[in-house]
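Prompt: I keep going back and forth on a fold encoding question. Comparing notes only helps if you start from a blank page. Show me how you would write down a chain together with its backbone fold. Please set it down just below, with no commentary around it:
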Amino acid sequence: MTGAAAATKPSRKEDLEEDKELQMELNLLVEKIIGPNEKLIPAALEMLKYLIRTSTTSMTSVPKPLKYLAPYYDQLKAFHKNVSKGNIKHSLADVISVLAIGTAGGEEAKKQRDCLKYCLMGTMRNIGDWGHEYIRQLESEIVEQLGLAHCEIGEHILQPLIKDILAFNCTHNAEIQACDLLMEIDCLPLLSEYINENTYQRICCYLTSCAKYTDKSERNEIMRLCYEEYIKFGEYVRSLIIGLQLNDDELIHNSFFRCKEKDVLNQLAFICARHLYPINVDSIEMNGYEDLTNILNNSFLSTFFLSLAKEFDVMEPKLPEDVYKTWLEPTSTKFHVLVENIDSAKQNLASTFVNGFVNAGFGCDKLMSNDAGNKWIYRNKEHGMLSATASLGLIFLWDVDGGLTPIDKYLYSHEDYIKSGALLALGLVNTRVRNECDPAFALLNEYVVSENEILQIGAILGIGIAYAGSYRDDILDLISAVLSNSCSLEVLGITSISCGLVSLGKPQTGIPSIILNTMIELNTKDPDNCKSIFMRLMALGLSLCYYGLRDDINVVSKTVEVFPEPLCSAAKNLLIMCAYAGSCDVLIIQELLKSLNDKTESSISTVQNKNIKQGKKSKKSSNEWDNLMGHALGALAVATISFGEEIGMEMVQRIFGHIGRYGEPSVRKTVPLAIALSSVSNPQLFVLDVLTKYSHDSDEDVACNALFGLGLIGCGTNNARLAANLRNLAVFHAKNPSQLFMVRIAQGLVHMGKGTITLNPMHTDRMLIDPVGMAGLIIITVALSDPHALILGKCHYLLYCISISIHPRWLLAVNQDLQITPVTVRVGQAVDVVGKAGSPKTITGIHTHSTPVLLAAGERAELATDQFQQCSPALDGICVLKEKQE
């Protein structure tokens, strides 16, 4: 150290002398305050206040004035008690209140809430001058005080103090503490007075993230406050997102009505189209914005997707063999020939699905197009023909104009299964797209009421997929009539699912009562009907009508108690699964996990008796009771409810590990599906490893579901590690037709859309969950809760319900004229910035690209140019950009 530096740095001896002087000065001031001369008290108090306010210290130590004044705390309190009312009493109360936050009063002062008590006795002026720690102590004591059963201090007395604290916090970058205080004391409406244009984004972002962990009433209060603030500051896109999260028609339409800017209106329409939310355009003042109708109808979806495919040069159709890559499998040629001959019909069916998945939306393939289609269809048997013909609907997905012609010729086939497949294909083509001509309804309605059950199945499922989330009364009237007239359980199950999809989240349509009455009649006619897997599908259709409605299922939950166990518990868990899907409701998850641990004596004894009689495991017949069916669906419900919240999903996956090891066989077979459901289109390594272990399980159902789960987590990603893993599993399961079928399906899912597609229903920077997309995943996973009864049996066509969850995983920039515009963007892993101070970076691991860009799960994009301004708060999906004015 140089001489100059040594001279400027204060020595330890000088510090001690300064501390001694400060201590003596404070002692003298206290003596004057409690002394007999009243004239000296005001000046001494003001000087004492000044020394406390201006003291500086490190973040880890107590300010020196508070430390040196601690021995006088009780004396000052006693003196204050004897002082008559006036300025001296108020000023002294301020000092005592500040001393109470330190060690002066000890634990007793904290128990008696002296800081708050003496603050209310004080001057109540400029409380922020005492610093952030003093404000925080006041906040904690206010919360404690108002939480008491017998509150001595009324809320009206605390109101002025609370407002002073809010004013201080909102002007000193402590908005998060202000939000926490008001949520604790249930006075959130007070916050709106203190929100300004500089703080509203930070406050609303924090509040919306907190709303996930509150009950329904508090959540609505928080979200509506944020909605009003966004509207006040002209953030119509953010306000629309709030409206969609609440599923409130009035709020959503209000965002459209208030917005007058064409670019922002188009952006609102793109978000609603992605969410499949039907907007009544006639009620909006269009002002020449005719593009809104086309956007809301998703008319641009096929055109934009094909432009993306051409940009990435992936238009060349692929064969199933290009996906399987059997030449890379570690086995000999002779063994391959042997494998191909095992259950060839099942493998042909697998190739049908793989061909549809890989070429989905591209409008061309090498298996079904032109004359090759007829040859391939007849290489399948009965229901296999249905699925083979229906695969054309996946290939021409979203292309209503181009897809009807190649499908139409199969409607004239003499084979009922081919004709039924064509009807289902017509529905698939119209998925997520609304057309003015309404071709799906025009072509399918006459077959819905057909006496031929095979044709009915294709038409009803097709119309349910085509109009999912549309809430159209004419559609519901058409298909609900089947519930009263049909005797086939299979038709009733498919019809219930279609009704549930069309009236998703809208029980007011009257569909729930129709389904319930039909189920009760079936149970009354023959109690064995409740053992059918299709009764479970009917319960699922009923549950879809209550999607996202949370506590509104209380009445219908009581109604389903008329059914015998285990259908009763299965129906209740399905209702909970759909009503709370994506809500992250911790209390509901805890209840479900508790029920998973409860094993009824009857179910255990039944299983034991079966094992004793049979001596070995046998395949369960379709007409046999599954006593733990409700528990199995409860595991799926846990995964569905926790969907969308990263910490919750991670915790749930750990719990599923225990259930997978020690659970009952009926519950274990749904564990791989539940794990996969919490990581859709996101092949995380630890999830991949867990599902790979389950895929080697001795239980055939567990292995099949684990293999499908591998396809679900890697869907549309082209993940090389997962693809290699599936090739090895194809060799391992070569002699087992069912497992090999699932391996092929998983391979098709991983390469779905040649790597341009996702099944993840979360969109708009993971702020929204597409209800129709989520419903598609729920249907598939529930169908796989008993894989051999449906997907591996004759109802494999239910796999096409996955089409309503398919969407491109793109970032596409369009200009004011809705023309695709290449823009430079930075893409990286999303960082959670909720509640963080300053302006933190929102992405990490940045790569620069030019749009269009494919976004993986958990990735976020930012504009890398100042030329354009985005209309959406998040660059995700189709984003409207407008040029900045110079």
About this structure: The longest helix spans residues 12-34.
